[in-house]
Design the sequence.
């Protein structure tokens, strides 16, 4: 059985802020794993459940909803348990979605889960697709009609209550064509050129010279 896991970003709460990719994943899948803070497996405290229900109504489809107890205690044992639910669901269903609020790349537990899945079931990790979504702060900026960055401004995203040292991921945009990238420094760089467009190129390092304006660099925080 060719199993497939989708990590689906739901956006900040409005079903209209779901992407077409998210809706297509819901249409295609056999079951949706939905995090809930209720230990009894009900969805009374689950914002994600409300969004999923609205999305399924919009699509006019019915899917199995699997509760995933997610107490948000930042406890590796909880992530292990959540992975067990996801992998068990994949034993009985070919295509499975796991949902997360906002965008998966911003303070979401999905990357803790994916690290565990990589160790336990590397084939599922390799074929897993993470679907990007609208972040809470992109939506906040839009509802207030206030730009997050203009001209030469930078944007900072910070945890309000860090548990330890705050490491930084840097996103570098708007390069000059022909520029040498030495001045960007060193680190865990990725280069993204023409993403989702013709001639898309994603390089897991820093390219030496910028060839096109549609290039962005991410210097990822070094994690253990
Ligand atoms: C665990 S983080 C998840 C962030 C999310 N992945 C994103 O892309 O925005 C949860 C925090 O995101 C912010 N957040 C997420 N959705 C929000 C919303 N609908 N309204 C206000 N803040 C929100 C709050 O600061 C909340 O404490």
Sequence:
């Amino acid at each position: 059985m060719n199993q497939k896991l989708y990590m689906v970003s739901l956006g900040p709460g409005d079903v209209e802020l779901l992407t077409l990719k998210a809706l297509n994943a819901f249409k295609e899948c056999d079951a949706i794993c939905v995090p809930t803070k209720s230990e009894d497996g009900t969805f009374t405290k689950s914002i994600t459940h409300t969004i999923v229900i609205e999305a399924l109504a919009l699509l006019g489809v019915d899917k199995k909803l699997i509760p995933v107890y997610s107490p948000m205690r930042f406890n590796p044992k909880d992530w292990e348990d959540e992975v067990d639910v996801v992998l068990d669901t994949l034993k009985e269903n070919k295509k499975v979605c796991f949902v997360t609020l906002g965008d998966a790349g911003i303070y979401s537990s999905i990357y803790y889960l994916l690290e565990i899945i990589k160790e336990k079931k590397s084939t599922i990790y390799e074929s897993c697709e993470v679907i990007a979504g609208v972040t809470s702060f992109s939506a906040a900026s839009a509802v207030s009609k206030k730009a997050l960055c203009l001209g030469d401004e930078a944007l900072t995203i910070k945890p309000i209550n860090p548990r330890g040292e705050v490491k930084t991921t840097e996103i570098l945009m708007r390069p000059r064509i022909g520029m040498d990238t030495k001045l960007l420094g060193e680190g865990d760089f990725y280069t993204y050129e023409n993403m989702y467009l013709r001639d898309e190129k994603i390089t897991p390092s820093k390219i030496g010279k910028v060839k096109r304006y549609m290039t962005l660099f991410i210097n990822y925080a070094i994690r253990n």
User: Anything to note?
Assistant: The two ends are 34 Å apart (CA to CA).
